[in-house]
Amino acid sequence: MSALARPRGALLIGLRALALGLAALAGIGAFVLFIQFGQADGLQTLDVVRALLILISTLWLAWGAVQALIGLTSRAEPPPRVDPHARIQGRTVVLVPVYNEDPVSTFSRVAAMDASLAATGDDAEVHFAILSDTRKDDIAQREVQVFAHLVEERDALGRFFYRRRTNNVGKKAGNIEDFITRSGAAYDFALILDADSLMEGETILQMIRRIEAEPRLGLLQTLPKVVRGSSRFARAMQFSASFFSPVFARGLAMLQGKTGPFWGHNAIVRTRAFAESCGLPALKGQPPFGGHVMSHDYVEAALLARNGWLVRLDDDLEGSFEEGPENIVDHAKRDRRWCQGNLQHARIIGAPGLRGWSRFVFAQGIMAYIAPLFWLGFLVASVAAPLFMPPPDYFPEPYWPFPYFPPSEASKAIGLAIGIFGLLLVPKLLIAGRAAMNGTARGFGGGNIAFASTLSELLFSSLTAPVLLAFATRSVFQVLFGADGGWPTNNRGDGRLSVADGFTAAWWIVAIGAAGLAVTWWLAPGLLFWLLPVGLPMIAAPWLISWSSQPSRSQLMLVPSEIDTPRILRLHDAIFTRWENAFPAPEGDRAGFADAPHRSPAHA
Amino acid sequence: MISHLTLPEVPALTDQPRAQRRLSPEDLVAGPAALPVAPMAMPAQQIEPDLRLSTRLARMLTRRPVGEGT
After folding, report:
1. pLDDT tens by residue, A366-389
2. How many whole angstroms separate alpha carbon A142 and alpha carbon A125?
3. Could you report the predicted ipTM of this complex, rounded to two decimals?
4. How would DSSP label each residue in A13-48?
5. Which of A161, A284, A299 sits opposite B35 (nearest CB)?
6. What CATH architecture does domain A91-326 belong to?
7. Where does the source fall among the domains of life (chain B) (predicted)?
């Protein structure tokens, strides 16, 4: 193991203190630089407010950069004391919650995972339970038909189960809880998936071996790779998730101690631990802050840790996959739910007995959504500053005949801007550099293509960030003003959007961007140049949304799963194609699966 | 934790001709493919802070961890 791998005790506390200290140092540095810049023409109250806003924003950016640095300086290694060939004793159930999904797509994944498990030759007892919360009777009827086909094809009577709930109490968390209270005692472990999850059989077995080998382990999370992205947006997200995220996740894994993350899927739980720790009551009051816990996964991880169970992210485990949204609008819809769920954690962060790190994780999740508000506040305050600034006094000394020009502190502002851009860019460039040196880049098309992909991703994320942040900011305001976003299913299908679609979704972003630049030109023309990278993408939002939703045929943004398709994906593709012929999509497929129109691998 | 493990009866597949064990999809999900009956208690946890002074005092005096529900 490397020196930094999975630190414990004093070393862990020291590493956390170092990470937080470095982030705080960056924030304080930005604050001091900005105060010095403001002092040049006389320090105003608004300068101090802006300095505080830049402190918080920089601290947040630096926290991400520090995680990447920790990830870069450590290695992913399997935990000790696990025999990778040990005979599995316990019984495991793979839980597949579905909600108005296309059953051909979802159940063919079950068939693929079962086939992958069978191919290992291991005799571990692994069952599958499809937990349907589907509300549409026609889709439910189709689920039953396709399930019968699944059982017959896999010869799985007694191993595969199907249940449809008549009500959706508690959404996904309630669906899992319903299973545990009915059938939990039949299983030692439960592998929780999403409808779009895929896992190699060997990975599933390794997870079972690891949780079986560590009796204190309550939950083991894998780092799922995003696959099958076909649009420009999806491929950029996929590249980012494959190339950058593992390093950030490793940094997180180093800091997790006994209180790792749970992301709601592609994770295995010890059934007894989960049952005794994770019963979630509805929060008092009405949504968005009351009612059922939306982002239940973070809460479940915190409750397991509160009860003394280990929660661990094993980022060395490969063979764990998920799919992502194909366009910015679908991403924003998903983000709306996550935003509401994370802000709802403000009600839970003070729950008794939680570990300090769990509370910190809640705070971090909340901060992920409110951070754009600090940037927004900084921009608004900067544009408005001239209104509150006294006119410059070039003759401060009475009877002195020569004018006094305050010293220019522009270098401080430029230094600050470079520092902030550095926090955003340097971690990704370092990751690209290390990938070229240690050979990881080969899986991304080689060192040159990986580096070009990194630059393209930086450009792409710079263009789309103002649009995504605008959606995120609107979500925060919607939640704060009491609007419940509900829980619509994901649309992960081939989601090409026209410019008109983009305009329908983002006309208000165009209006705010144009108005913002106009007001800046009027009040603070000197700032106009600096605000163009924010304002222009906002004005171009409909075109960006449409352009980024179109299929990508570029050689850039290559990921390993596109160069060498993982076995489980190939298996799923083959089964899906066969089933698609046996169960053709009903007339008007997109209308029939209005909430979940994707028939997934078709576009892969 | 009380466990009542009752897995559904599954006839030995090799003992019967394939045609005989074909069930209608509806019968399948209502019968052998229904979830096993093996209840497990999942008590609701305390996930909101109890800010009442009496609770905080009691907690401080007894030093008993709260919220675990078991």
Report:
1. 999 999 899 999 999 888 887 777
2. 28
3. 0.80
4. HHHHHHHHHHHHHHHHHHHHHHHHHHHTT---HHHH
5. A161
6. Alpha-Beta Complex (3.90)
7. Bacteria
